């Protein structure tokens, strides 16, 4: 049973309407005005006649729980185009009127609260104040409405905005809507910079014992002390976790730019990195990444979830070291360690740290569309009812989520490839961004390199 938090509702206020207008402008272009009259929401194109009305507003879209009903709408049966060619999930209601969209005088009426859905999903209202969390304090996919109703693998917000776009063109013929292009964003959380270099000798001895006695791997047995001793100013080529050049090579071969997110603090030593940002090896790597045109970002340490000031300190530390190495970037972003997130506290922490964007919002236990979209959008704090100077780039898939037995457990074979391919193709269909996280330390398993190269290729091979 989902634990409900009925202490607060997060209504769609005037501030939220202004934020939704910005969402619409970023999606469609043009200037929009939203107004509410009793139980009807009106969408106006500024400078034009007529309106689009939403007359079935859903109270559940202001509430932080996952007990909403859900139904499906066959768009093509009603004469509309479904961008995925499938019936659309309609969270929040047990059934829909038919026809769902009608001409009304000089306007059109839509009998489903599309913009309420956008608000609920993008502002992550569902997650505010939740206590049904996992062992890392994360709101899991298993508690979400999307997984419970089998649409987590659907960009449901993008699907419904595609329908709204069709109504807009019918309402205002000749209007040109913004055309978006499919993108891929590949990023790498650097939880461990080196398998051996920064570990104490006692740990190295234990690892060597395991290599020799348990796995009978003489090469790994000899590599461990060599890497530990030889790593001084740069990572060794023989270090299993030194995949940085290879990752950049693969990205460049596909016209992509990798983002590498580094841990810059130690709030929970057992879960945080064993490297220091100021170490000569790190400085060399930062300069290498920057010189090749790739991105450097922040991976806040484990307990910054509870300590926004510590997050800001770590962001400042990253910028300071980069400044010392004459590294300049137009924007600074990153992702929370372990995908730990508390809505909307973590939003405010990133904004207060002066960061440009965050790319945490995907689930650890299941790949998919946590925010219902694969498009970047401006953050909104539903608790304080204010837009933040922060962009959100939803995470669609993390390699661990798909492959690890603790999560989806699809391994490194055909099943995993098909899951990545499905999500990537759905991002393509809605002209969004397929955001993929693959740790630099996740290439020890046989087949990982080949699978990764196939996933980020322009087209996944059969």
Structural commentary:
With 462 residues, the chain is α/β, with parallel strands linked by helices. The chain has 13 helices and 16 strands. The chain has helices spanning 14-28, 114-122, 145-148, 156-171, 201-214, 218-230, 244-253, 280-291, 308-324, 345-352, 399-403, 414-429, 448-456; strands at residues 32-37, 40-45, 51-54, 70-73, 88-91, 101-104, 107-110, 183-190, 258-262, 295-298, 333-334, 357-358, 377-381, 386-392, 397-398, 433-437. β11, α10 and β12 (357-358) form a beta-alpha-beta unit. It is elongated and about 80 Å long.
Give the rounded overall mean pLDDT: 96
Q: What is the β-strand count?
A: 16
Strand count, sense and closure of the main sheet? 5 strands, mixed
Q: Specify the structural class.
A: alpha/beta
In which order are the strands of the major sheet placed?
1-2-3-7-6
Gyration radius, rounded: 24 Å
Poorly predicted tracts of residues: none
Order of helices and strands: HEEEEEEEHHHEHHHEHEHEHEEEEHHEH
Q: What distance lies between the first and last C-alpha atoms, to the nearest angstrom?
A: 41 Å
What percentage of the residues does DSSP assign to strands (E)?
15-25%
Sum up the structure in keywords.
about 450 residues, alpha/beta, 5-stranded mixed beta sheet, 13 helices
